[in-house]
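Entry for iron/sulfur cluster complex. Fields follow.
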Amino acid sequence: MKSAAGLGILLADGIGDTIRISLTADPVEEVRVARLLLKSLGLKFGGATMTSCPTCGRCSVAMIPIAERVEKRLAHLKGEVAVAVMGCEVNGPGEASAADVGVAYGHGGVGLLFKDGKIVRRMRAEDLEDAVVDEAIRIAEARSAKT
Ligand code: SF4
């Protein structure tokens, strides 16, 4: 947070050619967070941009490990793709349909897969993670091949 606040003001004004984020963590995380900061400021493009449910009482799945796994599985992508992983069928579809590909988990062990703003499949909840990852990779690789 301190890095984002301090560096973000300068970077948004076009000041600076390099950045360094310091974390009490594996140095690999510093690179990941620096990229995320640049993407959030619109200064870096490419790769997956994740939106994930912050969770609340409506959440129907263990969202945190799912979101972490999806983010890790898409970290290698070069092509741009927006991905949403949401935890309920009430507010989840809004974010899921705003992304290139998204999922909204639901109660009863099922959920919805969205692509380009439309529901494309109703699936078992345990299959949604692989489905969103596979689709995100396909979209990102197709976009990457065009550039
Ligand atoms: S998407 Fe659903 S579960 Fe997630 S925070 Fe919003 S309302 Fe709660």
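NOTE: The chain has a mean pLDDT of 91.
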